[in-house]
Amino acid sequence: xxxxxxxxxxxxxxxxxxxxxxxxxxxxxxxxxxxxxxxxxxxxxxxxxxxxxxxxxxxxxxxxxxxxxxxxxxxxxxxxxxxxxxxxxxxxxxxxxxxxxxxxxxxxxxxxxxxxxxxxxxxxxxxxxxxxxxxxxxxxxxxxxxxxxxxxxxxxxxxxxxxxxxxxxxxxxxxxxxxxxxxxxxxxxxxxxxxxx
Length: 197
What we know:
Blueprint: E1 6-14, E2 24-31, E3 35-40, E4 43-49, E5 63-64, E6 74-75, E7 81-85, E8 89-95, H1 100-110, E9 116-129, E10 134-149, H2 161-195
Parallel strand pairs: 4-10, 5-10
Antiparallel strand pairs: 1-2, 1-9, 2-8, 3-4, 5-6, 7-8, 9-10
C-alpha cells in the first residue's frame, strides 16, 4: 500500500523560561495562507489548506520527533503534545521536560539548530484550481507528527513523493491541453491560408 504522507515546514520556537515553564516549544505546523509550493517551466504552483480542513482530521495521537523519523520525544496521547486550529492555522505546543533526551532536544531547538518544524499528514479531499495553479486542500485525514527539521523543506527539492505525483499529473495535464490548443490553432491557420488561395 502506498504511503501518501505529505510534509510541510513552518517556524518553531522555544518558549522563553517563565512564559509557560521550561522545556516548552511551540509553533504553527500549518497556516491557512496560500503559499508557493514549486515553480516548473516558469509556472508557479501554489497550495492552500482551507481553515476547515482539520475539522474531521484524526489528531488523536500526534508524535513529536526529529525529521519525521526515529525516537519519539513527546506525543499527544501522553499529554505532552497539544495540537489545535485557530484563525491562523494548525498550532502545536510540546512539553519536552519529561526525559533527558527530550530536554537535550529542547536545548538544540533553543540554540537555533532546528529553526523550523514540519508536519506529516494525509489528504482526504482536495481540488485543483487551473486558473490560479493552486491545489486547495479541503480535508485532511490524519496528522501523524510534528517534527523539528534539520533542513527546512525546499518545495523545489524536498516535496514528498505523493505531492510530486499530484503536481506531476497536473503539469502533464496542462501540457497536454496546451499542445492540443496549439494543434487546433495550427489547423485554423492552415485553413485560413488554404481558404485564401
